[in-house]
Amino acid sequence: MNGFMQPISRKLLIAGISTILAANLGNVAIGQIVNLSSGNSAASVNLGSQAGMNSWTINGQNQLNQQWFWYRVDGDQTGQHSIDTIGTPSVIANSSSLDATYTAANFSLEIIYTLSGGATGGNDWTSDITENISIKNTTGSPLSFHFYQYSDFALAGSSGNEIASIFQNGGFYSKATVTKAGSQLSETIDQPLANEAEADTGTATLGRLNQGSPYTLNNNLNSGPDNSLDSTWALEWDFTIAPNSSMDVIKDKKLSVAPIIPEPTTFSLALLGAAAFVLRRKRLSA
Fold it and tell me: Which residue, of 160, 193, 225, 264, is most buried by count of CB atoms within 10 Å of its CB?
């Protein structure tokens, strides 16, 4: 897709996913925390706090600290707000998909997650999550809207030693990656490309989003490595949404992890040395 999907196609895609889920499941009475699973993977989303998606495991090893969304409407001098502050969402879910819609006085915001895990058995360390987001202006006037995504991964199950990179495409931002040794998380924006971006370490960007005044991401495109702090990144979309119309954001996250193989213990090394010694003695005496 990569930015070339027409608006009608985007709306049909999101509407189709929502319709299928609703037809098969109906509105599910669940709590604010929703757990998803597929193949070798599992994910947990807290819809009622900034924790957001706070776990994404592959073969039982967690790779994620926090991934969530903020918004700002022009004219709001109190700045950005995480979407959970809008209120309790309506939810449709099954084992591997989640459709949550938050409704404010002047807009609604729908997020559809779909988790696609790799093969089970412990040999496949790949996983994928797609995110389809639709923001609808429910008023009769244009709505100037800023939408943010913040991501903090802990690849290979530990913090630190990551490198975050954000990539440009024609003055916009199309992709973000975090790498750590042989592990990599790659997020590709299908459409529309982001207007602003920011890479940093620790909770620096998170603090700016929560600072209580309007903030525009600083377009720093690289961060890390730091021995103890994660490399984080954020993306920002700036929209003017026509009356009673929607804007859609479609993204895809691909995670590939290099499993950590424990180093041999002193005892196992001693056994290997003894076996080699015995084998050498047998060869000499033959």
Answer: 193
